[in-house]
Amino acid sequence: MTVASSSPLVSLDPATYVPHTLHQGDRTYLETNCYADVLIEVLHARGDEPLAAMGHTLRLDFEGDQFSFFKPPPGDLERLFGVDVHEMQPYRPLPGQIAALLERDRTMIVEVDAWYLPDTAATSYRREHVKTSIAPAAIDPAAERLTYFHNAGLYALEGEDFRGVFRQGMDLPGDVLPPYVDLVRFDAGPRLTGEPLRAEALALLRYHLARRPATNPFTRFAEQLAEELPSLLEGDVEGYHAYAFATVRMSGSAFEIAATHVEWLLGDAGTPAAEALRRIVDGSKVLSFKLARRRAFDPRPAVEGLAAAWDEAMGALDDALA
Predict the structure, then answer these.
(1) pLDDT of residue 295
(2) pTM, two decimal places
(3) Are 316 and 268 in contact (CB under 8 A)?
(4) Contact assessment for residue 279 and residue 309, using Cβ atoms and an 8 Å cutoff
(5) Which helix (H) or strand (E) holds 185?
(6) What distance in Å separates the CA atoms of residue 185 and residue 42, rounded to the nearest whole number?
(7) Contact 107/7 with Cβ under 8 angstroms?
(8) Which residues of the chain have pLDDT under 70?
(9) Within 10 Å of residue 223's Cβ, how many Cβ atoms?
(10) Residue 292's CB: how many other CB atoms inside 10 A?
(11) In which element (H, E) is residue 315 found?
């Protein structure tokens, strides 16, 4: 990339970039959701430990028809890393705005169409229009090149994909809204490391655990699943994938991160809770397979196992933090 910048992100090479451990190895969910994954990699690329900001996953709740779309809270990011994330107004062409932000050692999280993202070749690229979030690491508007964080890594695109991502040269109807974008600043306060980082992460874990759902989210999920299952099994495969992503995949990926966070922060004292959380991960995966078969089954035993694991995990964490 030829655009001058004070950001350390611009020197990263997708060919040699090593993702965070949350996006490597023998994990059940190498990807969680696009927003959380992008922030994990942006923090990691700058030398921060994103695991410190993952205590919020223990607040995951069932919202009536889906589990919470979890994101690291902006307040946590500011307390831990001095990172400020807030909405910004895309009032001019995005490539220029992105270049200006990177020049000031900032970036943005921007909603784009995965149709134009080459890293989604196995799913959406040139096949399906899907909203997703990326974070630019480097950009050359004149050469139409972009390096960007997405899902579990760092990637690059250019040419027609560049124009598509930024809607350049398209005859769009007047009712098409600009994308939602967040500004990401790295100068909002102290950047904690070492023991001060762990101490603040522990305080945040206590804060979030005290605000966990008042009732077991999987018990409520069981009721909704029993109602939805007949129509879900009669529906099309697209409906299944949408439902699975919003429910069992969201819960499984969140609690897998939660287990890793607890182990990182509490060590051996967190083992009982981490083991219970991983039973949620395994149970979510098994339930997703059962749903994928598109055959009638009794979901109660599977969801009861998830509910029991959630109760055990919360109790173990209360004991560890007492």
Answers:
(1) 84
(2) 0.94
(3) no
(4) yes
(5) strand 181-185
(6) 11
(7) yes
(8) 1-5, 172-176
(9) 11
(10) 12
(11) helix 300-321
Please report the pLDDT score of residue 174 as a whole number: 63
| Unique residue bearing structure tokens 């919360």 | 314
How far apart are alpha carbons 257 and 263 in whole angstroms? 10
β-strand pairing of 84-88 with 145-150: unpaired
Per the CB < 8 A criterion, the answer to whether 183 and 87 are in contact is yes
CA distance 308 to 279: 9
Structure confidence at residue 135 (pLDDT): 98
Closest CA to 249 of 289, 219, 220, 304: 289
Residue 122's DSSP bridge partners are none
- The single-letter DSSP state of residue 179 is P
pLDDT score of 172: 64
The DSSP H or E segment spanning 154 is strand 153-158
Q: From 161, 191, 183, 170, select the one nearest 100 (Cα to Cα).
A: 183
Token pair 């921007």: residue: 110
Cα atoms found within 13 Å of the Cα of residue 5, Cβ hemisphere only: 25
Give the pLDDT of residue 178.
78
